[in-house]
Amino acid sequence: MKLFGKPAQKKAQEGKSTTCRLALLSSTLLWFIAVGAGLSFLWSYENAPGLAAAAPSRWPNDSRIKPAPGRATLVMLTHPQCPCTRASIEELDKLMAHCQGRVNAYVVIMKPRGFAADWVETDLWRHALRIPGVSVLVDDDGIEARHFQAATSGQVILYSPDGGLLFSGGITGSRGHSGDNAGESAIESLINAGSANSDHSLVFGCPLFNPDSECRKGSYEEVGN
Amino acid sequence: MKKSETSLSIAPSTLKQASELFAAHRQTIYQSTDRMFAALMSIQWIAGVIAALWIAPRTWIGTTSQTHIHVWAAIFLGGAISLFPIILAAARPGESTTRYVIATAQMMMSALLIHLTGGRIETHFHVFGSLAFLAFYRDWRVLVPATIVVAADHFLRGIFWPQSVYGVLSASQWRWLEHAGWVLFEDTFLFIAIKRSVGEMWGMAQRTAELNDNEERYRAVVEQTAEGLVLAAVDTKRVLECNVAFADLLGYTLEEALSLTAYDFVVDEREAIDRRSGHVLDRRLPITGERRFRRKDGSIIDVEVNVTVISYGGNDVFCTIVRDIGERKRAEGALRESELRFRSVTQSANDSIISADSKGNIVFWNKGAEKAFGYTEEEILGKPLTQLMPEKYRAHVKGMERFMATGEARVIGKTVELNGLRKDGTTFPFELSLATWRTAQGSFFTGIMRDLTDRKQAEEALHKAHDQLETKVQERTAELARLNDVLKADNLERKRAEETLKESQQWLTAIFESSRDGIIVEESERIVYANQSYAHLFGYEPDELIGQPVWLVSEQEPSERMLEYSRRRMRGEEAPSLYPFRGTRKDGTTVDLEASVSTAKIGAKTYIISLCRDITERKRLEDEQQIISEIIRGVIATSDLEALLNLIHASISKCIYAENCFVALYDESTELMHFEFWVDKLDPRPLPRPIGVGFSSYVLRTGEPLLLDRERTEKMYQSGQVEKSGSASASWLGVPLRTPTSTIGVLVVQHYGDENAYTQRDVDFLASVAGQIALVIERKRAEEALSKQRAFLRQVIDLNPSFIFAKDRQGRFTLVNQALAEAYGTTVEGLLGKTDADFNANKEEVEWFRRDDLQVMDARSERFIPEEVITDASGKVRWLQTIKRPIISQDRKADQILGVATDITERKKAEHALRESEEQLRQAQKIESIGTLAGGIAHDFNNLMTAVTGYSELTLRSLKTDDPLRSKIEEIKKAGERAASLTRQLLAFSRKQMLQPRVLNLNTVITGMGRMLPRMIGEDIDVRIHLDASLGQIKADPGQIEQVLMNLAINARDAMPEGGRLTIKTENIHLDGKIAKRRLIVEPGNYVMLSVSDNGCGMDAETQTHIFEPFFTTKEIGKGTGLGLSTVYGIVKQSGGSIWVYSEVGRGTTFKIYLPRVDEVIEAEESENGSRSVPRGHETILLVEDEDMVRDLSKEILEEYGYVVISAPNGKEGLQICEEFEGQIDLMITDVVMPQMGGRELAEHVGALRPGTQVLYMSGFTDDAVVRHGVVDDGVFFIQKPFSPDSLALKAREVLDQNGGH
Questions:
Q1: Region A15-37: what's the mean pLDDT?
Q2: Rounded to whole angstroms, how far apart are CA atoms B1190 and B1288?
Q3: Which DSSP category does B1224 fall into?
């Protein structure tokens, strides 16, 4: 308590004008619309799937991957540099945790011709290596990817023990987003229960090949182009 | 805590303060949280960019890569999300819009970060964390937009991209709620937390408000108490705080006092001070004592101090209450002295002095009483008085009781003899003087008792000697008594006089000192007395003024006026006794005073007594009233707002410095302030501008006066309440101009040099007149608007060409326009208040107007008058079309009439002209038709007349002179000639007559008729002929001219039955367009005028309009054909001229004929037919005539003259003859108008067949074949019917001779 001296002065109130209010309201509205549009655009991008694989209905004999008898075989084809596939690897990790011992999983990492080996040794490759039950293969020149007709990184194909195609699709809900998704649920159901509501899903990831590389096998752009 | 519960227990003012504190605290929280989020937004933005660059820097398509869209999204979208809230947080911290935008942006940032990090579950916690941060605002409403954004995000993505939310492509439409539900869950808890926090804030605000209230109260107590209060540090004894009373006690200012230590003002050794203060500190109990303090001026004062130790600001301090006991000390000293004096007196007195209380118990006992009664003080104090009284006197105690109860006293104030009872039981006589006195403890009695024992004994002894001395003493005593009486009386008188004087002096002093007016007495211009009021009026003490010159407090330089007054008074002369003057206070300020001065002679001295009254306020009110009066009068005296504002400025300049002054008026329609009045030494007049942030705008907005010096101005700038504009002024004063309904503007005065130019008094003054100024400005504006409207309406009605008027029941014009005023030949002002009768000489019109106006007013209905006449100022009659309406007043009376009259005079003239034109057209058509008829008749008639006159002529040739048939045949011939003449007239009138014009001089024709005219018109007519010798030529048929002259002369003769004068005049004349038009001549130019005038009976206007009509005559039946003037008219018109008549009844008539003047040479005159001999011939003539009689006659005539005549009844046969006839045909005489083949056509064919054959046409009818407009073509031979045999033979010979003839 201050008993001595003069009491504190009160501050004057600021005035507002109707014009300022209207300008502020207009600015806020415009900002909201602009940001909303930006987010909508981003969401659209995030949810734009890549080209799904037309996987062969039977296990391709040309593949150097040999499926183990008595078990389903899962192949995930990836682009080592694709940031969206990071989420697919995480989902594979969770899937393998739920399907222990009932599936052989292979992560095929594409390496274009002429690229150094360390180009594929990314965190994605390292994560895949750490997943129990998952074998990591480097796919020189995308030969394996072509065997399975994969075009988009994150493409997952599941074959039954007898080599029949069970599922082809992605295991993320949108680009680079981990979390529950229809593909993972279907694969898990197929492996564990033998059936699922769907045998395909959208694939979200970077294209594995250059746009014209399908016609020019063995011809790749150098890194950095 | 509920606001309402606590609010009931606290005062409204405290509640208000609590609300303000709460609002301020909350605002602080808003602003600080805004700033926090601004920083957080920045960090999040950067984090988002870093995350995007770390997690997904590039996107790949095979072996090619590009920057990932996440990076761009992080930079630009993140920037967009962040920057707007950051800007708002910086520009508008604490505003609700800022918070809501931040909340929205924060959740959008959450969505963005979630996407950038790949939807990691960990990132989703950003949503919940953001909500928690938003709760920092302690405003639950902030959570609403945030929650809505989250819900919308899930809802919309659930619709458009369900797999991104639910992991499946299809999901329940309510599944988004499941996700949003978690957010709502957190919102619930946050809401509760916010409410609690807000409640705590409110409680804190209330407590703070209460604390502030208490603080205010205590501060008031501390500051207003008369006792000094000081807080000092326990260690250094330095004064930490003190109140003004303490500082004043020591003679310091507050600031000086705060720099003192106890050692500076406590009069004692330092060690003693420390010891005492340590004692207080140790005991922690307050101590009270007396001290001596040293003032600033070194004087010492006695004070009583109460010292205690308190906790102040967390530390122990000495709190000392200081009370000046100097007065008390002095009073105590005086009391002690008094008591000592009293005690010494009472104790040393021989008499017994005893005091008792109201209960009769002894409270005081002196030595004398001890000696008299034997009791010591200790023995008797507290004992009852009755102990000192013998039994029989104890009842006197009741007298005390009665006195206490009723106030009735029998012995108090008196001296009585009683007996006292000693301790030893003996009694003794004493004389008692009893008094009573009261204290707070009650009433007391004090008795002074004198032991009378010795005196009694002495009295007895003396009593014996008394008798002896009595006689001697009686005489002496009587004398002494008498002297004593005189002395007593003198003494009493002197005492009375002294008392009266003293009382009078006290009265005067009381009167002078209690007077609110200042009173001084001066002697020789020096003040010898000044009362308190006078001294205070000028800021002095009365003592300071005594002996000072009286000019000390009046004007510094006493005016000559006041000096003169003073000198006059001193000389005993008359001088004004009541006048105003301006006094100067001790501090230099001035005060307006009114002095009432008188002189008084006391002894040999003359004193001047002045009563001075402060009339500052009265003067201010007077000035104010005067200014207001001037302003109010200004409304009427000034013509416009500018003049009014100038007057206002001049008025207020009398009371206040206003060399820099402006009046700004706010226009609500344009939302601009207009600086209608501007006087400034430095700045130019600003343009109209909207209400801004200047001082005048501030006054306008707040509606409160504003007085500024430099310091306050600067503060307002810094606080942002106003912005700088214009030159900085040292002192600025602005007041709002307020009417009862609104604030219309601001009045400002300012001084650029003097910060103290304006005081609160000036503010009050200006504020008090501002209201009146606002009212007069409003009124002047209204007047100007009304005046403009009136001027506009005035212009409208004045520009209207119609007569606009209003009249009252007395016919006086109450409204007129310019058109009506001009019509009456006056001005608008000259017409107002007047009546029609004042300007219109036509009494009938005036009476009609009046009657009609009254009818309209009485009927209270509109009246339309299609036509009425009014005689204007020039006497000209105008036609008007009028509408009149009654004007119904507010009390429903039709006292006035409004009229609009359109001048339709021109229209009437045009209608009249049109009617005249139509009449002329009808007349012309009539004439044309008559002419056609006449022409048709004349043609056939001419043939008949040709036969009649021809055969008559032939018959006369064959008769002898004395043949009895000769006269008859001659009559037949005459009749035929008359008929032919009549036919000619008809043809002339209808302009169908054949004219053979040639160039001639009119004078020649007139001269030729000169001898015939008098015979024709009679000898009683005086014929006067005036011919212009230089008369120009005309081209006309001379015969026709003669006809004209003859007809006019005959007409003039008929107008003068009893004789008169006929004047014929010729003149060259040039007619200009105007005259030409007026005289109905189309072409202006040079004319030859023939004028025929008479002084006969004349014709009226009506007759004049008909005189040229055929068959119109004013003569009796049979006296005239009515064709004379119509023939004249026809001939003149056919000759290309014009005729004009002027006639006055009783005075005569003048006809003027204008014939176009030609420059051709006069043609030789042909000799008359009858004067030449008729040669014979033998040529062959082909005669073609369809009229049998004319053919046969013509054949007979020609054969008689020797010609060989071959005749044909029509053109066809004539042609056939030409073709078949083998011989030579020398001449073909053919009628012009014939059926099937006219004469012209026949002539063409014959000319082709027989080129040498001449052609002579004959006809009685104008025909375009050989004539144009009645004029024979040049080179064409023509003879007009009817013709005489000789004229036919002559003409044939003439034509044959043209060809050489045989």
A1: 87
A2: 12
A3: -
> Which residues are CB-neighbours of B1014 under 8 A, at least 6 positions away?
B1021, B1023
pLDDT higher than threshold 90 for residue B334:
no
Residue B1089: which residues within 8 A CB-CB, separation 6 or more? Answer: B1065, B1066, B1067, B1068, B1069, B1152, B1153, B1154, B1155
Q: How much is the pLDDT for B130?
A: 94
DSSP per position, B386-416? GGGS-GGGTTHHHHHHHHHHH---SSBTSEE
Domain A72-222 sits in CATH 3.40.30.10: yes
Phi-psi region of A155 (alpha: psi -120 to 50; beta: other; left: phi over 0): beta
- CA angle A140/A143/A147 to nearest 5° reads 150
Q: Does B1140 touch chain A (CB under 8 A)?
A: no
3-state secondary structure B83-130: HHHHHHHHHCCCCHHHHHHHHHHHHHHHHHHHHHCCCCHHHHHHHHHH
The answer to whether the CB of B757 falls within 8 A of the CB of B729 is: no
pLDDT of residue A75: 95
When CB atoms are compared, the residue of A10, A179, A221 closest to B119 is A179
Domain boundaries, chain A: 1-46, 72-222
Nearest CA in chain B to A182: B168
pLDDT band at B393 (very low <50, low <70, confident <90, very high): confident
Burial class (CB in 10 A: 0-12, 13-18, 19+), B156: middle
Q: Could A45 and B69 be called an inter-chain contact, meaning their C-beta atoms sit closer than 8 Å?
A: yes
Closest CA to A81 of A26, A118, A54, A56: A118
Give the torsion sign (CA, B369, B375, B380, B384).
negative
> In this model, does residue B538 exceed pLDDT 50?
yes
What residue type is assigned to position B723 of the chain? E
Q: Work out the number of other CB atoms within 10 angstroms of the CB of residue A152.
A: 26
Q: What is the ipTM of this complex?
A: 0.84
**Does any CB of chain A come closer than 8 Å to the CB of residue B61?**
yes
What the block records as the tokens of B884 is 């009149």
Would you call B218 and A1 a contact, using CB atoms and an 8 Å cutoff?
Answer: yes
Q: Closest residue of B to A7, CA-based?
A: B216
Q: How far is CA B968 from the centre of its chain?
A: 108
Q: Cα separation of B396 and B432, whole Å?
A: 12
Contact, B1258 vs B982, CB < 8 A? no
Residue B270 contacts residue B263 (beta carbons within 8 Å): yes
Mean pLDDT, chain B, whole residue set: 84
B1153 DSSP 8-state letter? E
DSSP states of B735-798: EEEE-SS-EEEEEEEEESS-TTS--HHHHHHHHHHHHHHHHHHHHHHHHHHHHHHHHHHHHHHH
pLDDT digits (tens, 9 = 90+) for A37-58: 999 898 888 888 888 888 899 9
Is the distance from CB of B772 to CB of B739 less than 8 angstroms?
no
B593 CB burial (10 A radius; 0-12, 13-18, 19+): buried
For residue range A103-130, what is the model confidence (pLDDT) as tens digits?
999 999 999 888 888 888 999 999 999 9
DSSP code of residue B1186: S
Q: In 3D, which of B933, B920, B1186, B1147 has the Cα closest to residue B1056?
A: B1147
Element (H, E) at B310: strand B300-312
State pLDDT tens for residues B872-883.
888 888 888 999
Half-sphere exposure of B256 (CA within 13 A, CB side): 12
Give the start-end residues of each E strand in chain A: 72-78, 103-111, 134-140, 155-159, 165-169
Tokens 């003879």 locate to B1279
Q: How many Å apart are CA B346 and CA A196, to the nearest integer?
A: 131
User: Minimal Cα–Cα distance from B701 to chain A, Å?
Assistant: 10
Residue A23 with chain B: CB contacts under 8 Å: none
